[in-house]
Amino acid sequence: MADVVIGERLHTVEELLALGSEARIEVIEGEIVEMSPVGGLHHFIAGNIYDELRSFTRKHNLGFVFMDGLLYLLHKEDKGIRGAQVPDVSFIRGVDIIATWQMEQPYPGAPTLAVEVMSPDDRIEEVLLRVRRYLHAGSDQVWLVFPREKELHQYFRESRAQVQVYQIDDVLDGGALLPDFTLRMRDVFAVPTLG
Count H helices, E strands: the chain? Predict the structure, then answer.
């Protein structure tokens, strides 16, 4: 998640790209912030979700699933970018893809689905702001994943007051966003035994 403030003015896409491919940054209220590194548990869980989503969406030709690293430009103004975030996993429905997107650049909009995996040092207040920014920018759903609690919270743009909570024995239903898609929480939180 976002951690250290780098700059305090609106920046252009060109300025963000000039930071280089190794820069792990987001833009929050016009400020460039550096993202903190995450641990292996975070990546195993995000990878489990990515694998399931990618397999399903490719099989049914529904769109594209992206892993951590794709910057989404959620809020642009004439003078520059006010908000840009990097979800841990994201999905863009094929019909939602912006045809003018230059793939070498950040995506000029919100993902259809954003998945955020909580890290031990994340503050829930800040993460809930991230969820609201995705939904406000046009994401249909945001999944917030809690590794320690082994829970997934599903937020909806259409019904912002509704949050569906899934625990370890539950199965997520893709609903209208991903018809016939199911995701077992046991599969989400499965991590290898080391040693």
Answer: 4, 13
Reference 84, options 17, 20, 27; nearest CA is 27
Buried b (16+ CB within 10 A) or exposed e, 75-88: bbeeebbbbbbbbb
pLDDT tens digit string along 136-149? Answer: 999 999 999 999 99
Into which CATH architecture does domain 38-188 fall? Alpha-Beta Complex (3.90)
Find where tokens 């702001």 sit.
129
Q: Tens of pLDDT along 78-101?
A: 667 667 788 999 999 999 999 999
Residue of 112 and 3 predicted with greater confidence = 112
Output the 3-class SS for 71-107: CEEEEEECCEEEEEECCCEEEEEHHHCCCCCCCCCCE
In contact, 183 and 52? CB cutoff 8 Å: yes
Place 4 in a pLDDT band, splitting at 50, 70 and 90: very low
Ordered by start, the domain boundaries in the chain are 38-188
**Burial class of residue 40 (count of CB atoms within 10 Å of its CB; 0-12, 13-18, 19+):** exposed
Write down how long the chain is.
195
| H or E segment to which residue 116 belongs | strand 113-117
